[in-house]
Amino acid sequence: LFPVDETPTDVLLRIASVSHQIASARIETALADMDPAVRDIVDIDPGVKYEANVHLKRAGDYYVRHARALRATPEGDEAWAQSLWWGADSYDLAGWYDLAITHFKEYLAGTQGEARRPEATFRIAQGYHALQDYPSALEYYQRVLGEHPNSTFAGRSYVPLARCQAATGDYAAAEASLQHVLGGSAHSIEPDAVDYREAQIDSGKLFYAQGKFVPAIEALDKALRRYPDDPRVNALRYTLADAYRQQSLKVGADMETAVLPGSELERLDEMRRSYLASAADLFDQVRAAYEARNAHHLQRFEQDMLRAAYLYRGDCAFLLGRLREAIEIYGETARKYSQHHSSMLALIQIVECYHRLGQTEQARIAHLRALRRLEELPDEAFSEPDSLLDRATWERWLQNTPLGSVARVPEGTTP
Asked: How far apart are CA 290 and CA 298, in angstroms?
């Protein structure tokens, strides 16, 4: 009914607000239809999300058009700021982070002393973070802390700030940022608060990523005990299990290289075995938890953890000298993942177990079984991104390794 530049401002505003309401209604309806025990916006049907985001994008466009129209009228400043805010908010919720950043910045530039300035700065940081522009995200998280130190958004900035610092390789700064929360110096955040929970979990993961397995074990164990209902609990349990396993390997390496008295070696061996026993128990919990769910509902990274948990359970038994148990676990792994290249690792470890038990004939049969599995595996099994060796390399390795001297596959090759 109107030329583009002559559309009444109230029409622009109504289109914007109704579009936002439609999007909100779609999301609320989808959430209401979900099981309350697992209700989470990230699990909403992708089609519903897409439809909501289309409405949110239109809301953002019309809120910004409304703000542009009001800027021409001197009395429109307050309404201008309101519409610009809702425009940026709509873009942000729809995942149009570049547009959200642009308009939140415009909002900051055009307002002074407004109560929403801390949130606008924080959401600019979040937008850059979502775009993986970590230096820019760091700048704006630090601006929240520097310009609005007493705001609630300052307290919420430490954990994402630490994540950006870790992403840029500044682990010391990341540890310090998390300690602001865990040490009680950041806005008196209590242990039951979301930000404290995230800091506790991130602390363990950060130590683990740096190979600091003892503090990783302490932090992850505390997180699991304090937050047993966290939806990430099984992934955290897996990380804790692997931290125990990795630390046992470190202790074992120290025992082999250091010149130590017998009493110290005994102490270290007891420690190594304790770590392995804890790892084995946790890997088994991971296995049981994932297998209790429908395999089709597991995400790719969960399937990878389940497969690795099978293999590492066998490794723990092997390193503890429980060779019969290791053979059983490796055999179970090889059967379950018969079409996956990782089954080769399990079969080769069975050869080594029989060799250590002095059962030469069983070792020979297991060696032949590994060769047969190599022939049976489809070519695509060796073209997957996590494939450790190609078919030809496996063939050379098996054919050039004489029976009775089967070397263990080098550490680190298990996915």
From this structure: 8
**275-296 pLDDT per residue, tens:** 999 999 999 999 999 999 887 7
Which residues, 6 or more positions from 51, have their beta carbon under 8 angstroms from its beta carbon? 26
Going by C-alpha positions, the residue among 378, 375, 369, 377 that lies closest to residue 403 is: 369
Cβ atoms of 251 and 268 closer than 8 Å: yes
The Cα 80–Cα 72 span in angstroms is 10
Spatial CA neighbour of 408 closest among 282, 213, 252, 242: 252
Give the DSSP H or E segment for 221. Answer: helix 213-226
Alpha-carbon gap, residue 243 to 238, rounded angstroms = 9
DSSP 28-85: HHHHHTS-GGG--GGGS-HHHHHHHHHHHHHHHHHHHHHHHHHHTSGGGHHHHHHHHH
What burial class does residue 33 get, using C-beta atoms within 10 Å of its C-beta: 0-12 exposed, 13-18 middle, 19+ buried?
exposed
Residue type, 317: A
Give the pLDDT confidence of 262-272 residue by residue, as tens digits.
888 899 999 99
Four-CA torsion 142, 145, 151, 152, nearest 10 degrees: 60
Nearest to 350 by CA among 386, 325, 382, 380: 325
Query: Dihedral of CA 80/85/91/94: which sign?
Result: negative
Tell me how far CA of residue 217 lies from CA of 13, 207, 223, 236, 363, in angstroms: 54, 9, 10, 11, 37
Give the tokens for residue 99.
């547009």
Q: Can you say how many angstroms the Cα of residue 286 is from the centroid of all Cα atoms in its chain?
A: 16
Helix (H) or strand (E) holding 403: none
Evaluate whether 84 touches 100 at the Cβ level (below 8 Å): no
pLDDT of residue 104: 97
